[in-house]
Amino acid sequence: MYTPKIFAGLMSLLLLISACSEEVSSTVSSAGEMDADGSDLVLLQERLNDLQERAQRLRDTKEIKRLQRAYGYYLDEAMWDDLTELFTDNATVEYARDGLYRGKERIREYLYRLGDNRSGLATGQLNEHFQLMPVITLSDDGMSAQGRWRALILTGQYQESALWGEGPYENEYVKQDGVWKISKLRWYQTILVPYNGAWGLNEDVNQGIYVSPDFPPDEPQTDNFGSWPETFLPPFHFDNPVGRYMPSESTTEGEG
Amino acid sequence: MNYPKPLLLICLLLTSLNAGAQDGVLLSLAKDIAQAEMEIQLLEDENEVENLQRIFGFYIDKHQWTQAADLFTDDATLEIGGSGVYVGKARILEYFKRMGAEGPQEGILNDHMQLQPVVHVSPDGTAKGRWHHFSQQAELRVSHFWGTGIYENEYLREDGVWKISKLHLYSTMRTPVDDGWHVTALPRSQPIEEFPPDRPASVDYENYPSVYVVPFHYEHPVTSPFVPNIAVEVLSVPTAETLAVQLEELDHRLSRLEDANDIERLQTIYGYYLARNQWDELTGIFASDGTIEIAMRGVYRGAASIRRNLNLYGVQDELPGELHNHMQYQPVIHVADDGLSANLRSRAFSMMGSFGNQGRFMGGTYENIFVKRNGQWMMFKDQQINTYFAGTDDGWINLTRSSPPGITQSNPPDEPPTMEFEMYPKAFLPPYHYANPVTEEPK
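Above: the input entities. Below: the structure tokens describing the complete assembly.
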């Protein structure tokens, strides 16, 4: 009901008045009610602000998780337009070793090409990409975030191929007009291997290359990530939340 | 304090104004606090709904049909694949019981992973959730299958307790392990003739290799974001003391939510470090007096022993041509009221092996304990109970080895194993740290 401005006005009035309150309290509180003085109310307001901010940060974390999971469900069904709308206008995507594509329309075209320029799955196509293991890190101002995830993948074409796949994401998100969007998507393909023999007996089926030969990226691959059986540790956006074990020194706890 | 008389008069005048202004401020604060309380309630509800679905999954895995059915409302509905709709808790229990004897059974694997929740809670005490379903089912020497599906479920809060009011599992793909989904794609289930459903299937669709998009309960999260309608009303002016007590209570509830968030994050980070043999990083997330107990290898106590235990799984940071993924999922977290300790049950699905040899899948359950020290959550007890190790091509059908990895004499534990168990094809129910959230039936 109170706009912030009116509220601020009231609060400063109360603060001003609170200087008087000690003197007049005996006179005025004759009504018998336990009036708070202005400084109490300011304290309450500060505590409320703190709660609101913390609750908002948890809500943001949950919304980012929903966003990435919604991404997964759209990807499963090759819903490329819905997928594209999850990104900011100048977002970037970089899948496996295909290089980096910048901007929503380039992303849309990239995704369509992943799906043979068709919206939706073809008959007999399986495209499951489970989105697992979120580690979300919100910026101090709560307007951007980073997230590590892992995709577990079952894809293939009936009577042609079946593949196991897996790989982590290191993504970035921003909040625009109160809505979280993906601003950067980086997916590392640990494996994409045939069902028979899986990762024990097969090399990666496409060496992490999807559509870039026919649709060159805006920037080449941004790191030296290779393909199975080569292995690579995608950098973490977060530090060890407790602290790395130092074998030669006594460990410390709870300095975070 | 002594004011000159004119100033005292001004003060008296202002203070009489103050009474009205103060009422306004108190009322405004009360409304904002009521709003914050509703928002915190929604966050708690979302956690409880996620816990509920995950608890359901753990019960189904182990054929705990009665425990699972007790999670439903009295007039709930259940619909799985093309089997039709069963109405009411009693019918749901009977449906479950037809899937096998109650309790974990020797020679049966029934893992149903509950993944990727998109849950939306409304302030009216209802919620909807989309989940991914990924199953590993086997009957020793008879059959073994991979299966995927999607849940679109509904939940209801009754007397403060969340229950499942509608469970709808749309099957997507099902294939025998020996074939794979490129060779064999089984159709969705049909109604059981001798136990017909109360209503026919609510939707007509075919499994993969047909294409069917399971309807979403939510709109597009960016173009039509979900905004719960939170309307609060505060009619009377509270005292500042009342508001201070409310804020204290909310702070407490919010802190437990932050704790649960931190713990889920830490367990997940555990999985990332484990996946790449980052043993010093992994040891670092434990309390200095923590323990690790993997399979039946025994208890390794304290940071130096935990670090030593990790050597059993490979050389630190060296993984050329090796896969060591331990996907962490389905966490059920309960934080102690004092915010200093917490229990977590969760699962791992692992993809392991060295290039050149058949790879392996591993399924397992965690019952872990976390502690908060100096404001920082850390792992206090990590206990992992394996369900199976299975070759990627062999699957579960002829698995015979049921003893989990035991003590390594050259790198022995500080204490013997705390739990004896056998893996599939033997039956074992890893003890729960929690009771049934609806009936409070014991663990």
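Note for the figure: Confidence is low (pLDDT under 50) at residues 19-34, 250-256 of chain A.
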